[in-house]
Amino acid sequence: MIDWLLRSRETGEIVVAQPPNVRNLVFVAATLGSWVLPDPRWRDRARSVATVALAAWAADEVVRGVNPFRRLLGAGGLLEVGRRLRH
Prior knowledge:
The protein is built from four helices and no strands. By secondary structure, the protein is mainly alpha-helical. It is elongated, with a radius of gyration of 15 Å.
C-alpha cells in the first residue's frame, strides 16, 4: 500500500516532498505578509493572494501529482481553500 501511495508514476522513485515551486513560495510569502502587515486592508489582500496561490497549487497536484499521495495532498489543499472561502 505504501509503495503504491508514494511511488512516482513517472520515475518509479518514492516521492513524499518536492522542491517548492512559485505557487508554494507565493503562498508562504503572502501568508507571512498577512500575519505581519499592519493595515487590515493589506492583510486581507495578502490572505486573498495566499488563498489563490494555494488553490492553484492544490488543483495542479490533484490533476498532475506524481503519485496518489501528492494528489491527496492537493485534495487537502482544496479543502483548505474551501474552508477559507467559507469564513
